[in-house]
Amino acid sequence: MKRPITIALSLVLATALCAAGTVAYLTFLRPADHPPAAACATTPTRPRVVAAGASMTQGSLGADWVAALRAAYPAYELVNAGSNGNTTADLLQRVDTDILACRPAAVTLLIGTNDVRNGVPLDEYRANLRAIVERVRTGTGARIALMSLPPLGENLNTPINRTLTGYNAAIKSLATEMGTDYLPVHERMADILRHGPRTSYAFSFPLAFTAAAQHYLLRRTWDEIARSGGRELLVDHIHLTDRAAALVTKLTGDWLNGIISS
C-alpha cells in the first residue's frame, strides 16, 4: 500500500512544482513581447515607439498596456523595453541598447516605482531620469513622454504615497524644464481612487505570485484578482489591473494621436 501512496504523492508534488515553475517563468523570467533585442536588430518600416520602464511596462505581472497599444495602433511598431525590477539607474545603463538602437520616433518613460520602494534618494532619482532624457534626446530625434508614477497601494494618504508625491513632482518639473511631453498617469488613477475606502500598500512577493498563479493557471482576469482583494486598479498594490492598463493605453494613444496630427 505504501508504494502506490508514495507514487501518488510524488505525482502531486511533481505537478505542483511544474505549475509553480510555469508561473514563475511567465511572471518573472520570460522576456517582454517584442523586446528591443528582437526589434532593434531590424530597420524600422513604420514609426517605432519604444515603451521603456520596469515591470509595469513589461506587463507579465499585471495587464500589458503596451500590447493593448500595439493592437490599437497598427501604424506604429511598439517595442516593449520594460524590465522587471528596474530602477532609473538600471534603465540608464541600457538606454543605448534598448532605446537608441531602436531608432525610435517616440519614447515613453514610466520608471521610478522601484526607486521609491528601494529608498533611492530623490536627488539621485532626478539626476538619473535627467540623464536618461538627455541621452535619448541627443541620440535620437524621438518625441519623449514622461509618465507620472501610479500610486503604491490604493490609499493615497499613506507614508509611501506621500513620499511618491515628491518623485512625481520631479517628473513633472523635469518634463517642463526639458521640453518633453508629460502623461498624468498618477493623476488619472488618483481621480478614481479618491472615492470610497481603499486598501493601503502591502505588496509582497507571495501576494504577487498568488495573483500570477490565479491569472495564468485559473485564467482569472487581473480585474477579478484585484477585486477579490478589495482593490480596483492595482493587482498586488503595484501592478496594473485591466482597468488601470486601459487608462494608460488611452493616455498614450491620445499622445500618439497628437504626434500624428502635429
Portion of residues in beta strands equals: 5-15%
What would you report as the Rg, rounded to the nearest angstrom? 20 Å
- Our count of domains comes out at 1
- Decide which structural class fits the backbone: alpha/beta
For the record, give the distance between the C-alpha atoms at the N and C termini, rounded to a whole number: 76 Å
- Mind telling me the CATH class? Alpha Beta
CATH topology: Rossmann fold
Overall pLDDT level: 92
Please summarize the sheet with the most strands.
Answer: 5 strands, parallel
Q: What is the assembly state of the chains in this entry?
A: single chain
What is the helix tally?
Answer: 13
In the CATH hierarchy, what is the superfamily?
SGNH hydrolase
Please trace the helix and strand order, writing H or E for each element: HHEHHEHHEHHEHEHHHH
How would you write the strand order of the largest sheet? 2-1-3-4-5
Q: What percentage of residues falls in helices of 4 or more residues? A: 55-70%
- Quick one: how many beta strands? 5
CATH architecture: 3-Layer(aba) Sandwich
GO molecular function, one term: phosphatidylcholine lysophospholipase activity
Keywords: Signal
Protein name: SGNH hydrolase-type esterase domain-containing protein
Domain SGNH hydrolase-type esterase: 53-191
